[in-house]
Design brief:
Blueprint: H1 13-20, E1 32-34, E2 37-41, E3 47-52, E4 55-63, E5 67-71, E6 78-83, E7 86-90, H2 102-110, E8 121-127, E9 130-138, E10 144-149, E11 162-164, E12 169-175, E13 182-188, E14 214-215, H3 227-236, E15 244-248, H4 264-278, E16 282-285, E17 289-290, E18 303-307, H5 314-326, E19 330-335, H6 361-364, E20 365-366, E21 371-372, H7 379-395, E22 400-403, H8 406-410, H9 432-448, E23 453-456, E24 478-480, H10 482-493, H11 504-507, E25 518-522, H12 534-537, H13 542-558, E26 562-566, H14 591-609, E27 623-627, E28 635-640, E29 649-654, E30 660-667, E31 672-678, E32 695-696, E33 707-713, E34 717-723
Helix pairs in contact: 4-5, 7-9, 13-14
Length: 726
Amino acid sequence: MTDVAYLPDGLTSSGIEAILRGQHHDPFAILGPHEGQLRVFAPQAAEVRALTNDGVFPLERIHPEGFFCGPGPQGAYRLAMRAGDHEWQVGDPYRFGPVLGEMDEYLLAEGSHRRLYDKLGARPITHQGVAGVAFAVWAPNARRVSVVGHFNAWDGRRHPMRRRLGPGIWELFIPGLTTGEVYKYEILSAHGERLPLKADPVGFAHQQSPETASVVHGLPDHDWRDGAWMTERARRQDRQAPISIYEVHLGSWRRGGDAEILDYDAMADLLVPYVQRMAFTHVEFLPVGEHPFTGSWGYQPVGLFAPTSRFGSPEAFARLVDRLHQAGIGVIMDWVPAHFPSDAHGLAGFDGTSLYEHADPRQGFHQDWNTLIYNFGRREVANFLQASALYWVDKFHVDALRVDAVASMLYLDYSRQPGEWVPNRHGGNQNLEAIDFLREVNTRVTTDHPGAITIAEESTAFPMVSRPVDQGGLGFAFKWNMGWMNDTLSYFRLDPIHRQHHQHDLTFGLVYAFSEDFVLPLSHDEVVHGKGSLIRQMAGDRWQKFANLRAYYAFMWTHPGKKLLFMGCEFAQDREWNHDQSLDWHLLDDPMHAGVQALVADLNRLYRDTPALHRLDCDPDGFEWIDSSDTAQSVLVWMRKSDDGAPPVVVVCNLTPVVREDYRIGVPLPGAWREVLNSDDPTYGGSGVGNAAVRDAEPTVWHGRDQSLSLTLPPLATVVLMPVKA
């Protein structure tokens, strides 16, 4: 290496060359203080001096590309640099010892670090008495990893990191950096290939799309004021509690003038009072984690530890959660461990190998979504995902994680033809590693954060999804009832004249209703991809569509199971959901749309205030058919019961447009009964047919009961009856 002026003791020309070319795997062996010498690589500087309180130590430029060396000071120092007329001072990262301790190293290597987010990522800290940012990233198969950003002109040679051999973690403390710095990792593969610059897998903030860098932020800093909610949370999310969920996509719920996207704080100003007025118990946000493609709605995340910057800072998201809690509203967040996008700046091929994903595309590639599948059997990957789940519950007080696409995790042959998948060690199709992962993450969420729960979006008959792990279950608190949704929507799409042949679509759900603890979901998936809005899916003319939708909602709210409704469906949004524009709030000027909204609010209040409608949602003792056999007239009658002595509720559905006079039903109690809700009420846009007066039960045996009522059944309507208190 002829350009080297001289070689100080301990240096080799090959070592210097490796630093100059960004190829050295151990920069601390070359750079920083070494037995009285100080070595600095500063290609941006013409002169370098070390400054202490006791003096100045000029360094000699021993290579024209910017390698400096000379006698160095003992103890702390700063580097003064000059290039032309510009002078500046920086700290030297290579004088600082490691940030991660031996126990961290051990737990990270073992894949059992419960607070991984306290150690990895970019964390503003004070280290050895100096303020700066500690970076740490897992890349065990890399030859070299560097932090790059505006602060070093995106030059990967200038801040190569220290490798911790045990866990394959690379770390570096850069003094003087602060929050707001934009950064990525430059990684050389084991073969020396320079990979696309990578965002931080444990980044706490990221640039807004289409930019893809991470942003130094550190853990969110928020003064929580939701103590009353947190104390009550376990009771408010129990299987006996009324849980009615409003599903929200933050980018399109409501927008400002000129279609301006609202930030988290502006959203809170509008969303919190609206959810209170509508009497929902919970809000569920479509995935909030940072995602590069807006059209994925968050379901292809890159930032599993960062609320999307589209709507503001992590602290602003925390304020939104806090304000919901203070209003008595729980927060559920969709969480996506089933797959991840193949964007070049993301996790795909992170260190030049299939690190987070399976190498075999039969295991590691989702054909449906063109995404990659996590290697759940790799302990570090499972630990990373578990830490993400715990992070949202810990740092943002999220009350529940709705785990997306669980079915695709459970089955190795999910959406695959024979020969396109790899059997498990027993020759079967269950993903045993994913099952273990789900059990572990569910256990950790609920034990580390009492009162927090998980909910599965799971569309198959996999057993015991919502049963405890110690009983052989997966450990979710609830499971979405996708079968109920498909069957009931199919029924309400039918012309009433054909419904007599399909009543089983409404009754079949009760055959298995208590095999799991279910949520009844009318979610975003039912109003996209050409399906049209819910109101458009209803049968009949305009009046019948609204009547059908109202009857459907009342059927749903009185059926066993917790409730979930996607935004806009509560006022019968007419068009299919578009994530790029606001809901059509102007429709509320139409009494028919406003009527549906009023009905949903009243259903929520009735459900919340009536023990018979919620306490035994997940227990067969809470439901009893009175009559499910009147298929010719498409009438259903059932009873909901409580376990606390509260009165029962009787529900009658007439799902044809024919008014039925003097329709007799058996009831469980003598005395007076009153109509507490009628989906055909004029308040809701209905025709006003019903049973306004109190009706006394008659001692006429009907439906196998000693007492019965004679009712007028309104057209395409659901009626709810309760006994009058003596």
